[in-house]
Sequence to fold (224 residues):
Amino acid sequence: MFIIVMPSATVENYLKCILMLSMECKGAEVPMGLIANSLGVTPGTATSMMKNLQREKWLTYKSRKGVTLTASGKKLGMRMIRRHRLLETFLVETLGLDWSEIHDEAEELEHSISEKVLERLDVFLGNPQHDPHGHPIPTKGGVIRKLPQKTLLDSLLGKKMKIESILDQGSDFLKFAQKKGLMPGKMITIIKRDKMADTIELQLEKKSKFSLGFKSAEKILVSG
Fold:
């Protein structure tokens, strides 16, 4: 008789985090420091967990280099990203929660929702392509659309760009972006760049102009 042991919420969180970081990293391995920082744990705790996950064949760990997910690790990580982003969409579009407060709620729910309910939820929502923050939602088969890598800061002066995604998931920044109208789907143009003050002047659709710091502009992905 075989006993199937389901991965814990901690394992799911680590694999989801590593997969998301691997999409951003240019190298094959995701650095340990980046993983520890993203999850808010000490490097020692992260390293210990990596060794456990390697024993369970979720990933390959190389000391002083980082980790690479195995096929099974990528599959579970992608499944968790899909769950998280569908739940965030449901919390905003159906329950009316603010987009700045849904991340932690989705973190709690994603570990308990069944695949059957998740697929019904996907259909109910109309098979959304992205979550409220503009991040692409993987398909049931694990296919995910690639986001443009150009940030608002990289945009040319005078060229109209479309806001695709907000990288910073922190509640404070999301509230700030919402207040400024910096939402996915909006059209925006850089009018002026002030390198001395580290700010850019923006025109958001037909609204009045306003300034934005370089650091904030780096947290917004655009296309166009």
The longest strand covers residues 187-194. The CA atoms of residues 44 and 178 lie 37 Å apart. The chain has a mean pLDDT of 92. The chain has eight helices and seven strands.
